[in-house]
Design goal:
Blueprint lengths: L30 H7 L5 E3 L40 H9 L26 H25 L9 E4 L3 E3 L2 E3 L3 E4 L4 E5 L2 H4 L1 H5 L3 H17 L2 H12 L2 H25 L1 H4 L6 H10 L2 H5 L11 H12 L19
Helix pairs in contact: 2-7, 3-6, 6-8, 7-8, 8-12, 10-12
Length: 328
């Protein structure tokens, strides 16, 4: 195959060409804003309105982190790290020790595709709970090596509306930082068709939401929200939000790459995976190619999902140091 998205890496698949695409402002201490944000409900959403990895031949695959015993879901997790100053918040975003880590690959994942449009709530819950186990196995090494604590969220399946510690949400998939759990609406396939049509789309969405959980546990999510709020400018606040969302896309692509051997993901599956990122672009959802919103245009979301598919280097997902044009 041709060059990989993130450059050649021994033992990993090369999914097509490298991505092509045509620093946050500095401010003063956060004390006042952070005091107002203690207990803040950060609702990180997939973008709806609110918006073969082999080290050997054949079956001789040496899976990484295979002896790690994945913990059960933690419904009473420890508090997420919070910056005490603006400088600390900026360091969480642009110089986080998490960026110095790599994800293990290939990683075993016993999950298999599910038709989310026809699955029962019980089947959805079982599928996503199993996927969470895979997500923890991939992300536990880089999170802990960076000095942070990883938490396994529960996944709650709901219908048209749900009220959580982050407030009330309609049809969506989201991570709530107030309880550090993940939620998935069984109605989502009706509103984002690609979720029902592509066999990997729902897993990409869930991996994106877990990307927000990673941001929560490494101080990124709250720092982004705090600096956005501190700016007092809607356009800057939206820019920080888009950096968070596109970073979660990058993390989701990186996860799909790590488990691609175990899941049997092929080059032919990549178009569908990238179509998922496109489907939840702000312009795709609104029909407005010039919209300035909170999650990023389809081209930006595809770019960062694509970037994640091509690398095990967490630092390649540092959207907070990327040019603003790459998270438009």
């Amino acid at each position: 195959m041709g060059a990989g998205f993130g450059g050649a890496q021994p033992g990993l698949p090369q999914y097509g060409p490298a991505p092509q695409m045509p620093g946050p402002p500095r401010r003063n201490p956060l004390r006042t804003v952070l005091l107002g944000m203690i207990g803040l409900c950060l609702l990180a959403i997939a973008g709806l309105v609110i918006t073969n990895l082999a080290t050997g031949a054949g079956s001789e695959v040496s899976y990484q982190n295979d002896n790690f015993k994945v913990p059960p879901p933690d419904t009473s997790p420890p508090p997420i790290p919070q910056p005490k100053t603006e400088a600390e918040a900026e360091a969480f975003l642009t110089a986080n020790p998490f960026y110095d880590q790599t994800t293990p690959a290939p990683v075993r994942c016993n999950s298999r595709p599910i038709n989310v449009a026809t699955a029962s709530d019980k089947q959805l819950a079982a599928h996503f709970d199993g996927l969470m186990e895979c997500l923890i196995r991939v992300w536990q090494p880089p999170v802990t090596k960076a000095g942070f604590q990883i938490v396994r969220p529960s996944v709650t399946i709901y219908g048209d509306e749900i009220t959580t510690k982050c407030g009330t949400s309609d049809v969506n998939a989201f991570y709530c930082s107030a309880d550090q759990q993940v939620y998935f609406s069984n109605q989502l396939p009706k509103y984002v068709t690609i979720v029902a049509e592509d066999k990997w789309a729902a897993d990409v969405v869930m991996a994106h939401e877990f990307g927000h959980a990673l941001q929560g546990r490494t101080g990124i999510l709250i720092s982004s929200a705090a600096l956005g709020q501190l700016s007092g400018e809607k356009s800057t606040e939206l820019l920080f939000s888009r950096r968070s969302e596109t970073q979660a896309d990058c993390f989701s692509g990186m996860f799909m790459r790590s488990v691609s051997v175990s899941l049997g993901i092929q080059q032919s599956d990549v178009a569908g995976i990238l179509a998922t990122y496109k489907a939840v672009g702000d312009d795709t959802l609104t029909g407005n190619p010039k919209v300035e919103a909170s999650h990023g245009l389809a081209r930006s979301r595809v770019y960062w999902g694509n970037t994640g598919l091509g690398t095990s280097d967490v630092g390649k997902c540092n959207t907070f140091s990327a040019p603003a044009s790459q998270v438009r």
